[in-house]
Amino acid sequence: MLDAVRAELVEHGYDALTVDTVAARAGVHRTTVYRRWRDVGGLLADVFDTAGDDTWRPPDTGSLLGDLLALNDEVLAALTERPPATMALIAASFRSEEAARALGRFWEDRYARCEPVVRRAVARGEVPAGTRARPLLISATAPLYHRLVLMRVPAEPGLAALAARSAVLAASAGAFTAPEPGDT
Amino acid sequence: MLDAVRAELVEHGYDALTVDTVAARAGVHRTTVYRRWRDVGGLLADVFDTAGDDTWRPPDTGSLLGDLLALNDEVLAALTERPPATMALIAASFRSEEAARALGRFWEDRYARCEPVVRRAVARGEVPAGTRARPLLISATAPLYHRLVLMRVPAEPGLAALAARSAVLAASAGAFTAPEPGDT
Q1: Taking Cα atoms as reference points, which of B56, B72, B48 lies closest to residue B147?
Q2: Which pLDDT tens digit goes with each residue over A70-105?
Q3: Which of A97, A19, A14 is nearest to A1 (CA)?
Q4: DSSP characters for B48-74?
Q5: Known Pfam families for this protein (chains A, B) (predicted)?
Q6: Of A9, A59, A176, B153, which has the fewest beta carbons less than 10 angstroms from its beta carbon?
Q7: DSSP code, position B98
Q8: Do residues A71 and A164 make contact, with C-beta atoms less than 8 angstroms apart?
Q9: Distance to chain A for B49, nearest Cα, Å
């Protein structure tokens, strides 16, 4: 069923996505779909929640830079895959509040799973003790999403590596060790 | 007319946005709108293109950190304004290819206008000669868009300042001076 949602979304976009088209594609009676998922938002939310329910672990290459480079290669691959399943899901999240919340949960889960990358870097002495994982990880990955998802420009060569390297340099200089600073 | 597009978008969302509702709100005959803008995508593209056609200049506070803090305060204000006009426009860009291209042009224009921020920092010796403006500016601003637009979580205190500070530390350490690195 969720494969049918993804396939419909990639092939025909959100505008053509209905419980009926998904049910037809999956060969399931529409009332079954309505009973379990209620609407398109519920189907999309389940796609995101299922995507997070796996055994994914972050790369462990032996260095912070290596881990972030490998992580960004994964992000880049997801955002440029053909057919553009990830991009279609992100776009759909702007249509359905339920899907948006599910995408938020998915990202929170992925960033939480990546925290060992930062803990290992602290243990190796690559970044100062007290370096906070979440802002470091977002600093390393956000430029890719910004360029590819929001500005929708092709990834310039070196974008993923540049973002990973600048996050490491900032972290090494203590950018992410401060307690929550006042936003002034 | 473009004010009518923005108002309709904020109040009723993209799904309710039609040439007819915009024409009615603006008190203009629908055929006039169709002749000039063709469709909703054309109207939205014009909203973005008009937004870029102003006298906006980046902050000039006397330091790179000061400039980026002020810039991020502006980004934060735009992304959290009520009614959420900027967020509505970004969401709409996921519905219309024409609007998406116009939003891309708008961002490119804004980042280009911000390049003096980096040139001044190089001249003051705050960052190494050869520091590239675009990746530095994206590093400073992308975490805000990532959290607020894509992950759709409220801005945690200090988010804007943290992103500005980490970009400055990375830039000072030479993160953005390299010629385009290979993405490996």
Answers
A1: B72
A2: 999 999 999 998 888 888 889 888 888 888 888 999
A3: A19
A4: HHHHHSS-------SSHHHHHHHHHHH
A5: TetR_C_11, TetR_N
A6: B153
A7: H
A8: yes
A9: 14
Query: Using an 8 Å Cβ cutoff, are B180 and A158 in contact?
Result: yes
Query: Residue B53: which residues within 8 A CB-CB, separation 6 or more?
Result: none
Q: Which of B175, B164, B73, B59 is nearest to B120 (CA)?
A: B59
Domain extent listing, chain A: 2-50, 56-172
In this structure, which topology does domain B2-50 adopt according to CATH? Arc Repressor Mutant, subunit A (1.10.10)
ipTM tops 0.85: yes
Q: Which CATH class name applies to A56-172? A: mainly alpha
A174 CB neighbours in chain B (<8 A) are 169
Q: Which residue of chain B is at minimal alpha-carbon distance from A184?
A: B161
Cβ within 8 Å, pair B107-A157: no
Pick B85 or A118 by higher pLDDT: A118
